[in-house]
Amino acid sequence: MTQVRYLLFVPVEKESIAKAFFFWLAFSSLVLWLGPFTNYSPAGFIDPWVYTGYFTNFSNLVHQFGLLYYPSRLPYVLFGVSMYAVFSPPVANFLINLCILTAGLISLYCIVARHQGRAIAALTGFAFCFNPYVMSSVSWDYPDGPAIAFLLLGLWVVLAPPPGLQGRRGMFLVGSLWAMAGFTNLIAGLIILPGVILIAYVRPYAIRQLGRDGLFVLMGVLFTTGCLAILSRQIFGDHRFYTQQVKMLLYMSREGRFQQMWGTGLTWLNSAYRLVATYGLTVIGGLFFIRHFGRLKSDRFYIGTYAFLFLCNVLFIFVEFGMKAVVLRVAYTSSYLVVPVFIFLAALIGALRKIALTNSSLTFELLLWLTVVGADAVPVYIFSRPNQLVTVLQHQYWAVAAYVGIAGLLACTLFASSRFFGTALAAASLTFLLSFSTTVDPALSYVFADSRPAYEAAIHTQNLLTSGIAKNRMLRFWFDNDEHWSPLFNSINSLYLWGWRDYSHLMPTMSVDELRYLFSANTTVVHLTQEPGRVEERTKLMAGRNIFVQDDGRWTVSVDNVEFQVIVQDVVDASSLK
Questions:
Q1: What distances in angstroms separate CA 546 from CA 512, 516, 572, one per listed residue?
Q2: CA 160 vs CA 35, 194, 203, 218: distances in Å
Q3: Could you tell me how far CA 424 lies from the centroid of its own chain?
Q4: Per-residue pLDDT tens for 117-134?
Q5: Would the pTM of this model clear 0.85, i.e. be above it?
Q6: Which of 305, 339, 312 shows the shortest CA–CA distance to 202?
């Protein structure tokens, strides 16, 4: 019994990384393969499909457009391009998501195992893997998932450095990993800045050593920047890849584009249930610390991770409301908060166990573990399958979150000393709160949709165009937003950097200069439609502006319930536009 307790609940100084890696690799594979989460970006989104377009058509897009905002995220883009170059698109997409999820899981597990033991580490890993917020970041084919993975890998080296990565070598690697996180998505900086305090957690009371660590972190950042700059020079003919995200941020801020895209005011809070996961946990964790200050004041892992979470929350609030940027109201930008949330969740559950279950039986500890796993899985199971319960609760999510939060708060602050009941209620309430608040958030609902047919239809369309159209021709996609599959048509267009215009309505009134730019003799018009008769009307619209075309091919794309026509026309004469 003592040996089992030691194996599961005692902090692990030297975990077998190979065994942990293969376990979480296998577990991640099962989650991605069996669901209930999607493994693909949903139809209708634009930016994720742009990255898929770069993965499948990198050289042509670089040749046409050079260094832009999207391909400047080199750590993610080059990884995706490499995977798609070796494997078929569905397999490459799966493996990219598998690498992202496994990297995050192994990092989180090793951090928690070092400080709280294997049982709580495994519990935290399961909660992480089954959380819709985490899985939405992984599966929607955007830089958020890999940036989060880079952040967690860096925190692993800070908080639980593997053998051979202590000291200077480890700090150099931290700088490199965090640089890749920032170059993957600049928003990662909002986690990196507070994360620096965790280096102080590892090196208490050694100012000179902190300075040396900071220097090696900086060296890692500069080394990685230099390597990526060389690659950028080779690929784009310009080493300044790091300027593109900054330019986009300044453009969006100065032009008021954030407000145009995402609105103003506070109405977005009405359905931002996902924020309960971080701000609710912050409140409960703070009150728990006050309630049990005497027992926790020497728990440096709890204090360090809570300070990390608290500062991340403050920084996100400042950027959202002080700088008027959209880091909380937009689901995918606030997803970075899962990093401090899950590390602190482990610290909080570990503190609960230490305070209330000092002499508990192994049976109860295992029962507690299973209770927490159930509390995490139940919301995902129920709400991933719309049913009568979902219908009844759909307008009362805030109330449910409030009740569960209050239960967790009371259990943590008042009942924890009652041992079994208080700890079980508190731990289950905390994990249920994280799972429930992210499961019911409407901004994350796509994570439960079956997006595979749309993905395969888009890739099939791209393969048809690649094989049937000369590479040096410019593509203009023409589709109407009143068709059933218009969201998918938007995504297919995004494989070629989008740039869609509603030609059906704009063609009669567009200026000659616009037409000359859009419909040169080197242009191919790609019609996407469920109603082939529309193409005849579009051809007449072009002829009315002296744009003459000839048919160059037509295909039917059919994948499961997805079916539409792809009709291609080459511009043969646009010399006398009117």
A1: 10, 11, 11
A2: 31, 18, 13, 20
A3: 31
A4: 888 898 899 989 988 899
A5: yes
A6: 305
